[in-house]
Amino acid sequence: MKFVIQRVNHAKVTVEEKTVGEIQQGFLVLVGVGEEDTREIADKFIRKLLALRIFQDEQGKTNLSLKDVEGQLLLVSQFTLYADCKKGNRPSFIRAGNPQKAEELYEYIVEKCRESVPVVEKGCFGAEMKVQLENNGPFTIILDETIL
């Protein structure tokens, strides 16, 4: 599993020029699901995501979590996080989870986040999406299998 987490002032995702998800201050999270991923792995990633303290406190230190700032989440599936560019110039996506499994885990992640975060928006799995954001910092964190 891979999460690319961007601290944003606002973000939105559109499909065919229609906004399908939009948030204000919070995290835009690009979610990649691998072939070996499970709900147990997703739970570890979700716990880490929700506990990250990367918002500034009164002293300007990154000391506040999403909950502390009443932040919002926008979760967007992105299988291309599993691009393997080792051979040639055309990426291979063989390590990405099959679409059915990946969609199930993505929807699981969305629902689990909704248990803790009042505003959770999402993209459309498998659709061609346009993502707009204003990255606050910029501040971007990548979570991958090294957190397990």
Question: What does it look like?
Answer:
The radius of gyration is 15 Å and the shape is globular. It has one domain: D-tyrosyl-tRNA(Tyr) deacylase (D-tyrosyl-trna(Tyr) Deacylase, Chain: A), CATH 3.50.80.10. Strands 1, 2, 3, 6, 7 and 8 form a 6-stranded mixed beta sheet that branches. Strands 4-5 form a two-stranded antiparallel ribbon. The model has no long low-confidence stretch (mean pLDDT 95). The protein is of the alpha/beta class and 148 residues long. A hairpin with a 5-residue loop joins strand 4 (53-56) and strand 5. The chain has helices at residues 39-51, 99-114, and strands at residues 2-15, 18-23, 26-32, 53-56, 62-65, 72-77, 120-122, 130-143. 20% of the residues lie in helices and 39% in strands. The longest helix has 16 residues, at 99-114. The protein has 2 helices and 8 strands; from the N terminus they run E-E-E-H-E-E-E-H-E-E. Helix 1 packs across helix 2.
Brief overview, please?
It contains two helices and eight strands. It is α/β, with parallel strands linked by helices and 148 residues long.
